[in-house]
Write a structure and sequence with these properties.
Elements lengths: L16 H5 L6 H13 L5 H5 L9 H8 L5 H6 L2 H5 L5 H12 L2 H12 L39 E5 L7 H10 L3 E3 L8 E4 L5 H9 L2 E3 L1 H7 L4
Length: 226
């Protein structure tokens, strides 16, 4: 930023290795690694981009919920605030914040700038609601979404406690890849709670609501890793 190379998000994608190599504490190898990482970041999908822009109330988990219901950023921008509020884990305040940002001058500039830079705004988590919001000609109900043929497809899962064989975020990503929705809180809509050691209040809530609970052994059996 001091050199004037970057003023907006999209400017990151115009950086050259030789520009970075000339900066303090960089060098050719470090510069090449940064450029490689920037190029790879173009293909992370809607939820990763949306959750990384500093939009008020929109973090990684909320962005994933939104990406599950909208096929790409164009469908998202066409939605009303009321429609956004219908997404699970969103609500009126979060929906209003996102809607206002998307339709602000800054928001539009960021979206268009990243599009022009080659950033992929399509959702990796999209499961749809019928054909609503779908922009890619997919089949009804999002049946061609990643993981849609899996037994995990459409299940709402909560992880709690410490697992011996899985890091929490790695397991969450694995389950999402199989079509599950991984959330942070237990509710009547939760299908399965996976409980490790020291599971705490989420396990208590699951028992209270009668939600199915699996230990790590059961999880590994279901994943075919037992």
């Amino acid at each position: 930023m001091e050199k004037g190379y970057v003023r907006h998000f999209a400017d990151v994608y115009g950086l050259k290795a030789e520009q970075l190599a000339g900066l303090p504490r960089m060098g050719e190898k470090s510069a090449a690694n940064v450029i490689e990482g920037i190029e790879a970041s173009k293909n992370r999908g809607l939820s990763r981009v949306l959750g990384s822009l500093g939009i008020r109330h929109i973090g990684a988990a909320t962005a994933r919920s939104i990406a599950g219901r909208f096929a790409d950023v164009d469908a998202l921008m066409e939605a009303s605030a009321e429609r956004l509020a219908e997404v699970e884990d969103v609500g009126l305040i979060v929906a209003g914040s996102l809607y206002d940002w998307l339709h602000s001058a800054t928001g539009r500039q960021v979206v268009e700038g990243l599009k022009e830079a080659g950033v992929d705004w399509r959702s990796r988590e999209y499961v749809g609601e019928g054909t609503e919001g779908r922009r890619d000609g997919g089949t009804e109900g999002g049946r061609d979404a990643p993981g849609s043929e899996s037994a995990w497809a459409g299940k709402t899962v909560v992880l709690t406690g410490t697992l011996a064989h899985f890091a929490r975020e790695e397991l969450a990503e694995k389950l999402r890849g199989l079509g599950a929705k991984v959330t942070g809180s237990v509710s009547k809509k939760t299908d399965v709670v996976i409980a490790g050691e020291e599971a705490g209040s989420k396990l208590d809530k699951a028992k209270e609501l009668g939600v199915e609970v699996w230990d790590e052994k059961r999880l590994m059996e279901e994943l075919g890793e037992g």
